[in-house]
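so i finally got all the pieces together for this one. its two components total, 462 residues if u count the protein bits. some of the lines might not be protein, just check the labels. i wanna see the whole assembly predicted at once instead of chain by chain like last time, that was a mess tbh
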Amino acid sequence: MRPWSVALLAGVLLSGCNEMGRQPRYDSSEPSRLFADGKSLQSAPEGTVAQDAPARLAALTTRPPMSAALLQRGQERYAINCVPCHDLAGDGHGTVPARGFPQPPSFHEPRLVAANSAYFVDVITYGHGVMYSYAARVEPADRWAIAAYVRALQLARRAPADALSNADRQALGGGNGS
Amino acid sequence: MIAALFPDRTAEALLIHLSGQESEAAAHEKDCLAAIFGAKLGWHGCKDALGALLQGNKGTGLLAQIFTASADTRLRAVLFLAALVGVFLIVFGGGFAESTFLTAVGWFRDQPVPFSHQHHVGSLGIDCRYCHSGVETSDRATFPPTHTCMTCHSQIWTGAPILAPVRQSMLTGKPIEWNRVSAVPDYVYFNHSIHIDRGVPCVTCHGRIDQMPLTARAKPFQMQWCLDCHRDPAPHLRPPEQVTRMDWSDWERDPEAHKDYGALMVQAYGIEPAKLIQCNTCHR
């Protein structure tokens, strides 16, 4: 074969190999041969303090003011992170305990009704018993939002019917409350 | 095809020239030419015969002029082009480029743990963001760290052999190596957070994940597919707080009820399709 036909053939064959599709860079969670543990995403050396650490700590220790937006955010985060076990109403009858996971306590038991919001934030941050920590998955501000929503769930179960507006009572069916 | 390589007049002139000659070699050449133009001998057969003749230098030398190195090359070029056209026809005409073999749609991959979205999302009802926690805030949806699996599997299915790699990973700190099913090439920039923020539901791009016992790609992640939506995103937009919802059959069944939603949202967000289809949106 002549050199040019070899070159042409090589060109055509190489167009099948897409070099640009696998560029020499690491995408997140790609394996790496550079490090002994094979991870491209290395954890920070021991003792490292993240730049946003003070802000996160502040968010964790100061309770945000109650607002409808906070409750809404809390409802969404609660649905994502807590509902599989604690269920929508907070009784602890989620789908996962139904498959053999230890039964979580109901949020409506007097001990937890009496607990303050910071306690819920603590449970989310550090876990409790067999429940793992959610610190990696739930941002500090969202932990307060979830705590606020759990408060709302608790209140919903115990609020006296006459505390509701007429319209709300009508919507709930009847008005004689229970 | 061979005849096409030689201008008619050359062949004619040659035949006339040869018929005037009486030598034995010329007779051979004549036979051979007749054979070529009559396509009796294969190309190789005749070339060999010619080669022998020419090497013996008994011929008139005329054939050597026709069958120069460049004639040989031209033939190869034609054959090569024909092969290329054939490949092109198979790839594009025959639908190979669209076939699932290339786009990987619906093809499962072996995973270190046979993780089932059908089980975890479909029957347990776990939200996508429980595991893919980066999806709202970063370009990557991210894969769940082993710690997330162990939230539940520290207590259930604790001895199951299929979960052994998960426990091993928790012990050693070495992440589970999932095989990707829905990656785009490195020269494409994709970002989840903007799509989620604007209310493009997961199901539009990843299909009914909640019905997949093993994860497979649901859509051909080709440029055309991205562009089809970027040209007119309105019909694909949904309320952002429901992006992880899988079943939108009520919207699709009743397009009238929601026909204004997308258009209004495109306005509200200030989405400009003309900008979305510029090359540097995705290739940067």
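Chain B touches chain A through 33 residues (CB under 8 Å).
Chain B has a mean pLDDT of 82.
anyway lmk what u think
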